């Protein structure tokens, strides 16, 4: 249970909100690089943290993320012409560069310098890996660039997708650190999904439906260990890192690529679920990449021409009761990502946490909320930089291991939970 | 004939407009929560929050194991101290309890964890273990983990004592 005032504190991320200010401390995924594929390509509407923006790539390959609306009469610059070093409003020809600076007002004499007085709000947009990242906070406090491993391995080793989720970011993120649902909701997929099946660890998931949990604070957030029984009195551990505010990694299975998510607020009732897969030491196989593109694993099939899942609210997520009855899927919804998203969206746009009845095994979620609240308050009241801003906090990995029963996972796996260039993930 | 026909009978009911039609009522009865400090350090942390407005939670401190007629083969009970200092018995406190939160500080709590944990286990009572330690690298944390792990469905290591009321609120204690 969470009091309404605390629920509001953690879920509302628009301008002027405390949680919005927290998100503005970080570099966040804004677009896939494929959305601005070439110089002078069409601009793209972007909404992040309840701000409507327009992204474009100018004639020299520079990326810009600026206020969507022309300063003259408020026209959306999505209709703009991206040409000759800027984005020109088609209404009266006002033109803006990637910093939002107006560089042309055709109705006024050039020598008047009028256009110098016009500047749209803008944010930096940089490419790292397959993603264009932005920082929407104070430029004077801009942190070093992000160091997430999936974005820094060679391109042939990584794949990223994004999908629109019609819910607040927090309930989506909480799904990412809720290991206990895997043995239920995703039980069918562990046997059938090409990016999950075949791992020895799957047997432990199926064999022990009542995992025990240990929650340990990390510099950047948490490590959440889910422990299940293995052979000879040993424990199978699945260790999920959460880095504040919204980065989660899924413990790996066998030699399958490692997956994870960013959960980025679009507004208070919608978020982007960013989903990545990478292998630290080898290229993704053609079969793996094809499976990801076809919506297997944590990715989805799209409604054509969009980043909206093909299975969505409008079609009841393509519910298949016969597959549910046969046991192929537990909920009747196909695909791991939409199994999660359908249920999280069903909670309502912002779940009313005053009504929930948490149990002791929900303590990973309880601790994550607590740390978020503390960080929000420390930033708001004392200007303390929150965990997860420091790039050192990004260099984490998930892990799945079998350990003797009397060992603390966080000590035994100290190296497994760090990025080690050239060393493969620790996985069962 | 199962196709949704009204807004409220399809997935769009998850939208903001339909959220206001959710049935508004208390969907759970009050839980009987027992918070047990396993050592003096934990008791000091517990005292900081015991006076707050809880939904029936009882705050107790482990004093000593004591032999007792067995329940499901157990031969140990325990003496606990209630908030007012009165002594009480673990077996009495566990009657009707829904959840037991055991709190330990680094390096302590071994005897109490086993007695309380086993007593909860034979009664199928939900358990949580909480180790409050300012420093994760304190060697005592590892010892506390080892003694609590067999007896708690979840084990949390928290550096911040403020997590105690946050956890108890979340669990509707």
Task: Describe this entry's structure for a reader.
The complex is a heterodimer of chains A (428) and B (173). Chain A has twelve helices and 19 strands. With 428 residues, chain A is of the alpha+beta class. The longest helix of chain A has 20 residues, at 363-382. The two termini of chain A are 35 Å apart. In chain B, β3 and β4 form a beta hairpin. Chain B is built from six helices and seven strands, in the order αβαβββαβαβαβα. With 173 residues, chain B is of the alpha/beta class. At the A-B interface, β13, α10 and α11 of A face β6, α5, β7 and α6 of B. β13 (212-217) of chain A pairs parallel with β7 of chain B, so a sheet runs across the interface.
Largest sheet of chain A: 8 strands, antiparallel
Strand portion of chain B: 25-35%
Apparent shape of chain A: globular
Order of helices and strands of chain B: HEHEEEHEHEHEH
Task: Name the helicity range of chain B.
Answer: 25-40%
Structural class of chain B: alpha/beta
Distance between the termini of chain B: 45 Å
Q: Give the rounded overall mean pLDDT of chain B.
A: 89
Largest inter-chain interface?
A-B, 44 and 39 residues
Regions of chain B with pLDDT < 50 over 5+ consecutive residues? none
Strand content of chain A: 15-25%
Based on CA atoms alone, the radius of gyration of chain B comes out at 20 Å
Briefly characterize the structure.
The complex is a heterodimer of chains A (428) and B (173). Chain A is α+β, with helices and mostly antiparallel strands. Chain A is built from twelve helices and 19 strands.
Q: What brief labels describe this structure?
A:
heterodimer, A: 428 residues, alpha+beta, eight-stranded antiparallel beta sheet, four-stranded antiparallel beta sheet, 12 helices, 19 strands, 22% helix, B: 173 residues, alpha/beta, seven-stranded mixed beta sheet, 6 helices, 7 strands, 28% strand
């Amino acid at each position: 249970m969470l009091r309404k005032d605390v629920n509001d504190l953690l879920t509302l991320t628009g301008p002027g909100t405390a949680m919005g200010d927290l998100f503005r401390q970080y570099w966040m995924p804004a677009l896939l690089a494929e959305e601005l594929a070439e110089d002078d390509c069409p601009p793209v509407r972007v909404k992040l943290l309840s701000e409507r923006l327009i992204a474009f790539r100018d004639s020299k390959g520079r990326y810009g993320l600026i206020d969507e609306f022309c300063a003259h009469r408020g026209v959306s610059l999505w209709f703009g012409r991206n040409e000759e070093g800027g984005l020109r409003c088609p209404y009266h020809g006002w033109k803006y560069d990637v910093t939002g600076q107006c560089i042309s007002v055709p109705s006024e004499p050039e020598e008047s310098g009028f256009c110098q007085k016009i500047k749209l709000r803008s944010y930096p947009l940089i490419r790292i890996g397959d993603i264009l990242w932005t920082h929407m906070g104070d430029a004077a406090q801009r942190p070093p660039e992000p160091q997430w491993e999936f974005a820094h391995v060679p391109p042939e080793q990584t794949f990223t997708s994004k999908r629109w989720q019609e819910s607040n970011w927090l309930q989506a993120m909480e799904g990412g650190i809720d290991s206990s649902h895997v043995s239920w909701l995703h039980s069918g997929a562990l046997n059938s999904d090409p990016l999950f099946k075949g791992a020895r660890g799957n047997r432990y998931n199926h064999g022990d439906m009542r995992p025990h949990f240990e929650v340990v604070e990390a510099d950047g957030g948490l490590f959440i260990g889910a422990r299940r029984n293995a052979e000879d009195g040993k424990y199978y551990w699945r260790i999920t890192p959460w880095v504040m505010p919204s980065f989660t990694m899924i413990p790996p299975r066998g030699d399958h690529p490692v997956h994870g998510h960013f959960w980025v607020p679009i507004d208070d009732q919608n978020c982007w679920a960013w989903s990545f897969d990478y292998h630290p030491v080898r290229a993704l196989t053609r079969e793996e990449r094809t499976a990801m593109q076809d919506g297997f694993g944590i990715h989805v099939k799209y409604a054509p021409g969009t980043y909206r899942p093909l299975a969505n609210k409008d079609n009841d997520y393509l519910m298949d009761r016969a597959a549910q009855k046969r046991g192929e899927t537990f909920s009747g919804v196909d695909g791991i990502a939409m199994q999660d998203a359908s249920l999280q969206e069903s909670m309502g746009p912002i779940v009313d946490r005053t009504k929930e009845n948490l149990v002791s095994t929900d303590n990973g979620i309880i601790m994550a909320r607590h740390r978020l609240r503390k960080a929000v308050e420390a930033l708001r009241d004392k200007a303390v930089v929150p965990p997860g801003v420091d790039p050192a906090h990004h260099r984490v990995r998930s892990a799945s291991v079998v350990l003797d029963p009397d060992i603390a996972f966080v000590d035994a796996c100290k190296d497994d939970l760090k990025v080690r260039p050239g060393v493969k993930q620790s996985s069962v | 004939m199962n196709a949704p026909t009204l807004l409220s009978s399809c997935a769009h009911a998850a939208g903001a407009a339909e959220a206001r039609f959710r049935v508004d009522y208390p969907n759970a009865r009050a839980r009987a929560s027992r918070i047990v400090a396993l050592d003096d350090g934990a008791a000091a942390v517990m005292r900081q929050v015991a006076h707050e407005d809880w939904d029936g939670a009882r705050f107790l401190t482990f004093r000593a194991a004591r032999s007792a007629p067995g329940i499901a083969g157990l031969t140990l009970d325990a003496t606990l101290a209630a908030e007012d200092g009165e002594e009480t018995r673990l077996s009495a406190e566990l009657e009707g309890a829904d959840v037991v939160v055991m709190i330990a500080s680094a390096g302590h709590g071994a005897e109490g964890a086993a007695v309380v944990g086993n007593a909860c286990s034979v009664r199928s009572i939900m358990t949580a273990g909480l180790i409050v330690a300012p420093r994760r690298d304190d060697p005592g944390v590892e010892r506390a983990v080892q003694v609590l792990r067999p007896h708690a469905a979840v084990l949390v290591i928290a550096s911040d004592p403020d997590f105690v009321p946050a956890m108890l609120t979340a669990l509707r204690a």
